[in-house]
Design brief:
The chain has a single domain, classed as Arc Repressor Mutant, subunit A, CATH 1.10.10.10. It has 153 residues and is mainly α. The protein has six helices and two strands; from the N terminus they run H-H-H-E-E-H-H-H. The chain starts with 5 loop residues before the first helix and ends with a helix.
């Protein structure tokens, strides 16, 4: 089963949009992500429908944030992109009458549901601004490391 990376990709996009003083076109986002602009528009539509981003056509247009990153949570974005599956694991359904299969499926189902609820709770507590702040911390650390390395030359 292929991994669904829409959430991480769209979070990436939202932070880049926030860092710009103008909108980002679907073509620019598509080039950044290595995907077709149509895929970008389709993915961003869920965010637009919920009022998280807006789009303008024409020269100087593009995708813009409709609310600050501190008012957007991981849960907001996850839901807006259609709640992609969190786990690649599935349940066996080859022998529905088998008591062992039933017990295994029940246990796995309960466990995965509990894990999903924990993840959703965490998603609700993390804002996109929290992630953007981590980017800034990493940038500061990277800049400091680069200065140290260049001064040793």
């Amino acid at each position: 089963m292929a991994r669904d990376n829409r959430l991480s990709r769209i979070l990436h996009v939202l932070i880049h949009i926030d860092q710009r003083d103008r909108g980002m076109t679907s073509e620019e986002i598509g080039a950044m992500l290595g995907t077709n602009p149509v895929v970008v528009r389709r993915t961003m539509a869920g965010l637009r429908d919920r009022g998280y981003v807006s789009s303008e056509k024409g020269h100087g247009g593009g995708w813009r944030l409709a609310r600050p990153l501190k008012l957007l949570t991981l849960l907001d974005v996850y839901e807006a992109i259609g709640e992609p599956a969190m786990f690649a694991m599935g349940l066996a359904e080859d022998h529905r009458q088998c008591l062992v299969e039933g017990a295994v499926n029940n246990t796995l189902n309960e466990t995965l549901n509990e894990a999903r609820q924990l993840i959703l709770k965490r998603f609700q507590s993390v804002t996109i601004a929290d992630i953007a702040a981590d980017v800034q911390r990493r940038l500061g650390a990277h800049t400091a490391t680069s200065k140290i390395a260049s001064s040793k030359k």
